[in-house]
Write a structure and sequence with these properties.
By secondary structure, the protein is mainly α. The chain contains 18 helices and no strands. The longest helix has 36 residues.
Length: 472
Amino acid sequence: MLFNSFAFAGFMVIVVPAYFLLPQRFRPLLLAVASYYFYMSGHAGYGWLLFTSTAVSYLGGLAMERWPARAARRTTLGLCMAVNLGLLFFFKYADFFIASLNAALHTHLPLLHLALPVGISFFTFQALSYCFDVYRGRFPAERRFDVFAAYKAFFPQLVAGPIERPGNVVPQLKREHRFDYGRFVSGLRLMLWGFFKKLVIADRLAVIVKDAYGAPGDHTGLQLLAATYAFSFQIFCDFSAYTDIARGCARILGIELMENFRQPYFARTIPEFWSRWHISLSTWFRDYLYIPLGGNRGTGGRWACNILVVFLISGLWHGADWKFAIWGLLHAVFFLISSLLAKLRWNLRPPPWLAWIGAAGQRVLTFHLVALAWVFFRAGSLPDALLILKKMALLPWKSPILTQHFGVPDLMISAAAILALEAVQLLQLRGGAVAFLERRPLWIRWPAYYSLIFAIVLYAQQGQKDFIYFQF
């Protein structure tokens, strides 16, 4: 079930009143059942995967508390990891490893051609968060299965995050929430902004990106460059839109999900970018992989190795393809160079006007480094990515930009929508767009909201399109 569908609107119309009409003790069960219906309405064949991951993690948490001996806890944690990661590796990486083995050893092992269950990377990592936190004593094992199932399958963030820690969501599921009009309006406002980013910006930019990246040999370097810029905004608007809608849905129910994006394209460095982009995943890798590997302790070589490992695994988490591995390693190299240069900049004290120019230049450079890496992320294959980079490097400036599927009206609508997006982003940097609007009179606030609604109605790209991160 897609957020951008009438089915989801009908689903919310039923779930929200039922949630507030039921006594508190039955609400987690309602959320668990509704979440399984939400997931299985489009992916009925994979409901057992979600349930298996949930049951194993739930029982594993209880076992780790019941048998506190270190050996028993380690064994239980290992079994939980084996089941959760085993399901993820089997469905997501089996064909990747078979194909890589065939290429390396010149064998002819048959591929399995398994369909990737939607959201498996997200709900697997959420299960591991719970298991790790219980093992480390950071969170007590949850005894109510309905509460744990609701946390594990919570429908707003089940398919594409944010990847929530149990310490944030589980206590909220147990707390009684009364219907609150202000919270309801705030949630709808956040959802509205998400629908604008998805339907008006991301889905419209997807046309030029799909056209150019689908057949890079048929497009000029300038068209591919334009498509690369388009994809940079498409993936941000698409993914952050999902998070906004998810947080808005949860807020209506009285549950606050973590912020997953903080204006990442305004970052001055690659490390800062990763503190602003997909924050739930970045912090997951920091807490459960980078720090256990040793973090920045030890020699500089050990630290660099830890960074490379984390970004390599992060790349492969996004997709079973070597192009994702290269995307991750590129970011690792950028991260290491940026961190080393930051130590040199620490001793510089330029005048304010020069510091401002330098900061602007850093933001432009960081954005273009991120956009360069997106080429490998979006290209259909590694050879396609190399062809795109080659054609962009040999840029013929007099060639046309627009394609047969993306004309002047589309360009104007996209440009206007992106300008509106950047204006809101700037307001968020300065205290928040909502706070800015709330300080304005009604005759300014309501036209702003109605403008978003009319923009969605008039300029939304036709046809329902999946969110990009559904494929991960």
